[in-house]
Amino acid sequence: MGVTKENCRNELRTAIRQLTDRCLYSASKWAAEQLVGIEQDPAKYPPSHTRLQRDCSSIRRRFRSTDETISTPIAGTSYVSTPVPEEESEAADSDFYLLAKTYFNCREYRRAAHVLSDQTGKKALFLRCYALYLAGEKRKEEETIELEGPLGKSDAVNSELVSIERDLSTVRKNNTIDSFGLYLYGLVLKEKGDQNLARTVLTESVNSYPWNWSAWLELQSLCTTIDTLNTLKLNNHWMKDFFLASCYHELRMHNESLSRYESLQSTFGFSNYIKAQIAKAQYSLREFEQVEAIFEELLRIDPYRVDDMDMYSNVLYAKECFSGLSYLARQVFMTDKYRPESCCIIGNYYSLKGLHEKSVMYFRRALKLNKNYLSAWTLMGHEYVEMKNTPAAVDAYRRAVDINPCDYRAWYGLGQAYEMMGMPYYALHYFKKSVFLQPSDSRLWIAMAQCYETDQLRMLEEAIKCYRRAANCNDREAIALHRLAKLHSELGESEEAAFYYKKDLERMEDEEREGPNMVEALLFLANYCRAQKRFEEAEVYCTRLLDYNGPEKETAKSLLQAIKYAQSGFPSMDVEHFPS
């Protein structure tokens, strides 16, 4: 069966109230953003109701549905109808529940739990356990800071996990647990390392109540392979498409992820979340122009947005767009300077200015706010590499891979650091890990090839294989073709060398680039064509070399003279080989 836009609206409106009532504010915020992202009919609603949906012309959904039904990329799939559960009657507990909520909102978690200690309803049980969980997390963080400092590693654990697990496992066995209790139970099991049971419990939670995005995210963190994802028995609710799109992105299946998001845009055409996720997928595909266009649009619609803007700053940094990055840094500084994303953006700004120590200061500030903030560890590692502080760089990159072993940038950074320390075998090990995770990135293949070329390894055939992969992966830096030509020349493989020099020359002509690489290619090709008695081609290359003023001009003159002698039938001049 299809699901209409109006059904989605009604489901989300009810879910937002229920999530907020249980203090699940991140999930409530996400649901509210999707609610506003559903296109409104301008004829039915006043302009104030469609303000956020006007002027969104540059990034429009590619699929439009004439009837108001959510489409799905999988042919023949029908969505199940999951009624939003009615709230249970807890009139006797409501006053205590309201008091507990006020304590919770003031971050007095233990007081909130204490108020609900005698209450028996499902809502009260959830909020009591959730408050205890957050109290335990808060204490764990305090112990870490006391023992190791704000960025230190620690064996501190959440001391409330055991009692929460005991209470929730009992109500689950009695079949009196609701979907919110299942969500929290799954979160506790994940923290304790029982991943299989955590997956089962979280699947039960999202199947019974699919609107809790926080539960989906916890389930996603337990799906580190496509095989694990495929084993999940999930109902075909429309929220499943959001989940799969996000999972595909994390599993580096970026085209599949884009396909899901584009399908969802038929209903959630004005969802800023979906636009940002599309930008993330295109960022991973290195489509920087499109990413920049999406983030410019997002900032125009939502000028005080900080979520995901650190990725936008990475794009501006890669493009060396100083003015754009300066504007973005100022904007987030004025909006909320103590968000980890804001600190990373400002750190990127100072890095682009070459102020690496100040950049590190802001990345450290981001980590003090959230020490599991992955990109801050990786970016700080990059800064330490620039500062030639390799031990600190290695430590930062290791912290990043501890948080997420699938972060190819951190593995690549480790490879760079060990390469700087003159340890190519270690560097190669880490480059291999990075290229396994991101095989479409030419920079990783080039780094691995350069490792094979080092004096300690001298594995030139392996280097050639890596450069070939880089050349097939849209090598933007134009390194691979030139290195392939050089290596084949060094190995005496003139025909292969000529093939790659010619391809490199064609690319330089297309990009209107001049320089020593062009001179080198022209010299080699002139010599090669002369040796193959392809004199007309050789003359063309020599003639082009006459436009230069260096020693290559004299070499070209000598070559032209030798070619004329050879064409006239005279014995060959005593020119064994001209330097290339």
From TrEMBL:
Residues 8-279 form the Cdc23 domain. One of its GO terms (biological process) is anaphase-promoting complex-dependent catabolic process. Transmembrane segments: none annotated. Keywords: Cell cycle, Cell division, Mitosis, Repeat, TPR repeat, Ubl conjugation pathway. One of its GO terms (cellular component) is anaphase-promoting complex. TPR repeats lie at residues 340-373, 374-407, 408-441. The keyword Cell cycle applies. The keyword Cell division applies. It comes from the Eukaryota. Pfam families: ANAPC8, TPR_11, TPR_16, TPR_8. This is Cdc23 domain-containing protein. It comes from Lactuca sativa (Garden lettuce).
